[in-house]
Fold this protein.
Amino acid sequence: MKTDLKKQLAILIAAGIFLIIIDLVSAFTLNTAEFSKDSAGTFITRSDKTDHISLRARTFGKGIAYDREFDVSISPYATENPSRKSEDKYMPKDEFVAQEIRSIVMSFNDDTSIRKIYLPNVLSNGQKVTWTVVRNTHTVLIIFTCLLTGFLLYHRRNAPVIRKKKMQRQSIARQLPEFVNRLVLLLNAGLVLNSAFERAIQEGLRFQDNDLDYFWSKMNDIYISIRETNSSANQEFRSFAKESGVNELIRISNILNDNVSKGVELTQKLYAESELLWINRKRSCEEHGKISEEKMVLPLTILLLVLVAITVSPALLEL
């Protein structure tokens, strides 16, 4: 499990670094137009091909604040100047700055015979404006996503083990009452503990499918160990109970151990435990049934809404 976690974190780090590199490369390569400054001011150099650039225009002074980004396509250099489009010079007062900056940006390709496109530092109303190149990167978002994913992976590192333990406990709770009940019947028939234990396992395995669940797979291992090594059924079952950590299984193991070491009455105690196990199993089935009913509420609600929509739609269409 630790190895899998290390592999997942290594893949996550590698993917994060790769995405950051791609993001930085794309941020610096998308702006293909050359943005420079000289003594005359800030300008964009027109090349022999169509270029793209992201600009940010900010104004200050005069009490009017304006900050906006523009994605601009710069037409290639041409020796012949196309006719300039006539523009409406009227601009509403409240949108004067925004309209003028937009008109400046839209006029970049009016005269393609000019190599250097100078950007004005002052608008017609005297307000200063600054131009900067925008390089949109998502490095912070990528790093945050990688850190969050890594935290979730580390936090859920034990989820497979917890899920497996839960399935094992459910298997024991489901199969143990039947096994104990069969063991009680065989003991009442006159068999000794080891023989009754082996026979109970044989009878239980006979009614199982080829794909055994956790409880019967462990019982099968115990049966093989008893037959091949002639070990004690009580000791093997006790080891299984300690490994599982299930209280009911440990309690049954203690009853069997007390019978072997102290000669305590076995049949009556196992019968009482069998009754208790069956009661717990019924209660568990009822709880799972209630949980299943609660899970079915949302799908049934959706089906009801669909049925209502299908029923009402023809009447609504006729209106």
